[in-house]
From TrEMBL:
Keyword tags: ATP-binding, Isomerase, Kinase, Lyase, Metal-binding, Multifunctional enzyme, NAD, NADP, Nucleotide-binding, Potassium, Transferase
Gene: nnrE
One of the protein's GO biological processes: metabolite repair
Residues the record lists as binding K(+): N58, D114, S150
Reactions catalysed according to its record: (6R)-NADPHX = (6S)-NADPHX; (6S)-NADPHX + ADP = AMP + phosphate + NADPH + H(+); (6R)-NADHX = (6S)-NADHX; (6S)-NADHX + ADP = AMP + phosphate + NADH + H(+)
Domain of life: Bacteria
UniProt source species: Sphingomonas rubra
EC number: 4.2.1.136, 5.1.99.6
Name of the protein described by the UniProt record: Bifunctional NAD(P)H-hydrate repair enzyme
InterPro entries in UniProt: Carbohydrate_kinase_pred_CS, CARKD, Nnr, Ribokinase-like, YjeF_N_dom, YjeF_N_dom_sf
Binding, AMP: K370, G371, P372, D373, T374, G399
CDD domains reported in the protein's UniProt record: YXKO-related (cd01171)
One annotated GO molecular function: ATP binding
Cofactor or coenzyme needed: K(+); Mg(2+)
Length: 451
């Protein structure tokens, strides 16, 4: 069972194409079912297992898993929604020599395995399925989903029929968008990948711990990266971003605008466009607390006119003309939350991954589409997805902290997509270090411990 970090993410269509290219689908189902059986045996220990099988190929995986568990001497029962309807599932069901119970009449077991419906589901599940399934899940000590929790849409994370939450989801061959995208991801529990030996190339991957530059004997504050944070109407937001940049590893941070007080390591200078001309600046962060008045427009214009890499957040996103990014040679990273994204790019179509990729192509910049799931997309079609954000990040200033951390990773010389993904990873890990009921100042401070 492989953690999802850095693993490829495939849509249902891409997964089917990979399976077809691999060939011998019967052997592939055998491999999948046996892998599920091995994983369930590890998770269940000696506890009896009940496997729920649907009529399609996800159910076929369940039949193979049940037969493999029984052959290994494990106490296992099987309940089916309906007879198998695909050739692969019928062949798999023939290997199960035990009794096939009906879902409606099945009695609970300590371990419940959901092999009802997998990728490709596009309809509601009826009460005749959901009611007994929820009853059995409520009585189980462990609920395991095969590939996906049944009732969710693989590609966009929509919930078609609310499933009982799984403690573990065993992703077959590759991750699917719904393993990371909300609201579906909240029903998947801990996701673990089962490697089936299928080549599954993808330009979209789950987020992973970053590799960031470390200081060495010859390092000094400017080789660590210099970040300039443009202040504005709400000085505290800019200062919070500046603090986060320092805590995320920048060697020198200057706040351009009003404000005073700690930390004393923060360099404070009055705002002037000339301050952005310093060739040592590795990244400019603009937007946190900027405001939306004429002065804010002037500061954004000055930042866009520089040849420095930019992190554009908050108020600056509401003022931004995307066409201004077209002629810039230096990298730009936009960090909108859902409301800012809609204001800048419109509603869009498709999954959050699709919409963020389209936005990155439109802006010709890296787009970090924040939220309970975060999608980071590049204009060249690459994407990184971070799921399961800490719910306590729903606090004022957390976005300012992410903007500052992004400035630090970008100023360190890391490529823009990697810098954005690194900042999102650091931000999420810092939130978990903070525990409950933290404020954004705590979050910024925790970045040092994460680094």
């Amino acid at each position: 069972m492989i953690p999802p970090d850095g693993q490829p993410i495939l849509t249902a269509a891409a997964m089917r194409a990979a399976e077809q290219a691999h060939g011998d689908l019967s052997a592939l189902m055998d491999r999948a079912g046996r892998a599920v059986a091995q994983a369930v045996a590890r998770l269940a220990g000696p506890s009896p297992v009940l496997i729920l099988c649907g009529p399609g190929n996800n159910g076929g995986d369940g039949y193979v898993a049940a037969a493999a568990l029984a052959a290994a001497g494990h106490a296992v029962r099987l309940a089916a929604v309906a007879p198998p309807t695909t050739d692969l599932a019928r062949a798999a069901a023939a290997r199960w020599t035990g009794r096939v119970e009906t879902l409606a009449n099945a009695q609970p077991a300590p371990v419940l395995v959901d092999a009802l419906f997998g990728t490709g589901l596009s309809r509601l599940l009826g009460h005749a399925i959901t009611a007994p399934w929820h009853r059995l899940a409520a009585a189980a000590q462990l609920h395991v989903a095969v590939d996906l929790p049944s009732g969710i849409a693989s590609d966009d994370g929509a919930v078609l029929s609310t499933p009982p939450p799984a403690q573990v989801t065993l992703a077959l061959a590759a991750l699917k968008p719904a393993h990371l995208l909300q609201p579906a991801a909240r029903y998947a529990g801990t996701v673990r990948l089962l490697d089936l030996g299928i080549a599954a190339p993808s330009s979209c991957h789950a987020i992973a711990a970053p590799t960031l530059p470390e200081p060495g004997p010859d390092s000094h504050k400017f080789t660590r990266g210099m970040v300039a944070v443009v202040g504005g109407a709400m000085a505290g937001a800019g200062e919070l971003a500046a603090l986060a940049a320092m805590r995320a590893g920048a060697g020198y941070v200057v706040h351009l605008g009003d404000g005073q007080g700690p930390p004393h390591a923060l360099v404070r200078k009055p705002w002037s466009p000339a301050a952005l001309d310093d060739p040592r600046i590795g990244a400019v962060v603009i937007g946190p607390g900027l405001g939306r008045d004429a002065a804010a427009h002037t500061r954004l214009d000055a930042a866009l006119a520089t040849d420095r890499p930019l992190v554009i957040d908050g108020d600056a996103l509401h003022l931004l003309d995307l066409d201004r990014l077209a002629d810039r040679q230096a990298a730009a990273i936009l960090t909108p939350h859902a409301g800012e994204f809609a204001a800048l790019f419109g509603k869009g179509q498709g999954s959050k991954i699709d919409r963020t990729l389209a936005a990155a192509a439109r802006a010709r910049a890296i787009v970090v589409h924040k939220g309970p799931d975060t999608v980071i997309a590049a204009p060249d079609g690459r994407a990184v997805v971070a799921g399961d954000a800490d719910d306590w990040l729903s606090t004022a200033g957390s976005g300012d902290v992410l903007a500052g951390a992004t400035g630090a990773t970008l100023a360190s010389g890391v490529a823009a997509l990697d810098a954005a993904a690194a900042a999102v990873w650091l931000h999420g890990r810092a939130a978990r270090r903070c525990g409950r009921s933290f404020i954004a100042d705590d979050l910024a401070a925790a970045l040092s411990r994460v680094r």
